[in-house]
Write a structure and sequence with these properties.
By secondary structure, this protein is an alpha/beta fold. It is built from nine helices and six strands, in the order H-E-H-H-E-H-H-E-H-E-H-H-E-E-H. Strand 3, helix 6 and strand 4 form a beta-alpha-beta unit. Bound molecules: farnesyl diphosphate (FPP).
């Protein structure tokens, strides 16, 4: 995208304020090419960077990416290590990009399980980007049910004995993001796999057979266009 294109897009308000991606299909994408699954994640991480930047360029206010679920620890150690390494490399490398693109990184999920070194890097990036306004949520060790339990426990610890929907919305990990508009899942499966269960209540769903490493910025344009044509009723008529 050229600077002029970005400027043009900036003049038209994007109808999507908050988009979320289930980045599925890295393993199958690699297998089709006779490569190990870890290679799919490596290319997947490059696509993650491209798509996150593009979403900011077109005026989306928050983008959320499902990078590692609470269930993904069951994968072979080699694959888990490869994903952690990719995250670590990204965190070492992203500071300038975050500044230039006004991106604020927020991790969704319990960080206590990560190595001391990785946890420090995650906290450092959250801290150093906290004044930027385009929110990029990265779900790491994230589960939707786990998040609701976390939010409820947080509120109990604050002394609440009766919870409202607003209470829970303010205690989930995405509390600084706008309402979720759409969840996109690549890779052909038609489920949400414990992702953003609370936030998904009125979100649109968009499924594509494309594997995550094949997703392009043109696909994002198509998703925005499809969203424009959805009639959202939020339970009304
Ligand atoms: C799902 O595809 C993908 C994952 C569990 C990992 C996603 C991780 C990345 C894109 C890299 C993240 C990196 C950073 C820097 C955040 P799958 O492995 O389940 O694919 P399959 O369904 O084809 O097996």
């Amino acid at each position: 995208m050229t600077k002029n294109d970005v400027a043009l897009k900036d003049t038209v308000e994007c109808p999507i304020k908050h988009i979320a991606f289930i980045m599925d299909g890295n393993g199958r994408w690699a297998k089709k090419r006779g490569m190990p699954r870890e290679y799919g994640h490596k290319v997947g991480a490059e696509v993650f960077r491209k798509i996150m930047r593009y979403c900011g360029d077109i005026g989306i206010e928050a983008a959320t990416f499902y990078a590692f679920s609470t269930e993904n620890w069951k994968r072979p150690q080699k694959e888990v290590d490869a994903i952690m390494k990719l995250l670590s490399i990204y965190l070492d490398d992203c500071k300038k990009e975050l500044r230039t693109n006004n991106m604020r990184i927020v991790f969704l999920g319990d960080k206590s399980i990560f190595s001391e070194e990785l946890r420090k890097k995650m906290i450092d990036i959250e801290e150093s980007s906290k004044n930027n306004t385009y929110i990029v949520n990265i779900a790491m060790n994230y589960g939707g049910r786990d998040e609701i339990v976390y939010a409820a426990n947080k509120l109990i610890a604050q002394g609440k004995t009766h919870l409202t929907e607003d209470d829970i919305s303010s205690a989930v990990y995405t509390n600084i993001s706008p309402e979720l508009d759409i969840i996109v899942r690549t890779g052909g499966d038609l489920r949400i796999s414990n992702f953003l269960l609370w936030q998904a209540a009125y979100a649109e769903l968009y499924f594509t057979d494309k594997f995550w490493p094949d997703l392009t910025t043109d696909d994002v344009d198509e998703i925005v266009d499809a969203f424009k044509h959805r009639k959202r009723r939020f339970g009304g008529v």
